[in-house]
Amino acid sequence: MNPAAPAHTPQLLTDGERPAVLVGCRLDHPVERVWEAITVPGLLARWFPSEVEFELRPGGTVTFDPDGESYAGQVLTAEPPHRLGFTWEEDRLEFTLSGTGDGQATDLTLVHAFDDLAGAASFATGWEGCFASLADVLAGREPVDPGRRVARHEELVALFGLDRPEVTRGEDGGWRAAWERQLTCPAQAAWDLWFGTDRDTGRQRRTPDIGAPFQHSGAPDTVLGTARVVDEPREFVLDIAEDVAGNTLGLRLGDGTGHGARLYLEVTGREEDLDAALELWGEGALGGLARAAAEQDAAGR
To answer: In the listed set 118, 135, 159, which residue is the last one of a domain according to the structure?
Structure first.
């Protein structure tokens, strides 16, 4: 048996006060042994994202990174060896341990609640990597760095529906589609991918000047609109051409999770253009950028 066999597929939970991810695994060790690994500082530090010290009682203090720039959380639940809940800054983590079979294996689940919905795939991907390291610790092995696991991140983005826009309609018959997408590359890399490379030379295409036509690298012979705002690598606003789906497009790049930059894309248009615009700008341009970023990472660039 895989020492960290998944107990279930990660889930995005949206029926509570805040979004949360549920991540779990099955470990070939008794509940008491797993409890030690999630509460004893020397073991915890080998797989958890931070060094941690607990006062294992409800209301007790949780100290993160005690030897560095420490900050505190609070223990919410401590029921050895089955339940541990605590806060980490504004987030809430709840671990549940359940013995299986003859008591020699444990199903471990974590529910991590947070405010950053668009970061959900990053959080779940990170915890899966942490649980793989936990399995190594319990088996007496040196944990192997799981890396950024970009392909898995993109799988979970799709599974959680984080690649879909929020569409709102106005009284004038128009619409607004907004995407907030965690990327797997820095802002400058995302900016370069948005404008793409020249099909003939393979060189990075130049960012258009304000008032200049914009042609996407995927359709270099088609003018998609006129650049209205250009602030590399943070903001690009486009007045979309009359024969192209949509009226205006706004692209912003900001700080995201540890995987990369956060991309915000907003497109407006007329009701009859909605489906075509979602396909062109969402599935096509934004989806293509995210796929290209993941491919770059896989290629080590």
So the answer is: 159
Neighbouring CB atoms inside 10 A of 56's CB total 13
| Side-by-side strand order, sheet with 174-182 | 166-169, 174-182, 262-270, 248-254, 235-240, 225-231, 213-214
Give the C-alpha separation, 297 to 232, whole Å: 22
The reply to whether 142 and 184 lie within a common domain is no
Which of 139, 159, 179 terminates a domain? The answer is: 159
Clarify whether residues 18 and 143 are in a common domain. Answer: yes
Question: Based on C-alpha coordinates, what's the Rg of the chain?
Answer: 23
CATH of the domain at 271: 3.30.530.20
Residues 46, 124 within the same domain: yes
pTM: 0.91
What single DSSP character describes residue 273? G
pLDDT per residue over 156-214, tens digit each?
A: 999 999 999 999 999 888 999 999 999 999 999 999 999 998 888 889 999 999 999 99
**Is 37 in contact with 30 (CB distance < 8 Å)?**
no
CA distances (Å), origin 277, targets 82, 104, 248, 274, 287? 50, 54, 11, 5, 13
Specify the pLDDT at position 270.
Answer: 94
The tokens for 231 are 């602030």
Residue 1: the pLDDT is 33
What is the helix, strand, coil percentage profile of the chain, to 5?
A: 30, 35, 40
- 160 in Cβ contact with 12 (< 8 Å): yes
Under 8 Å between Cβ of 75 and 54: yes
The dihedrals phi and psi of 276, each to the nearest 5 degrees, come to -65, -40
Q: What is the pLDDT of residues 116-166, one digit of tens each?
A: 999 999 999 999 999 999 999 999 999 988 888 999 999 999 999 999 999
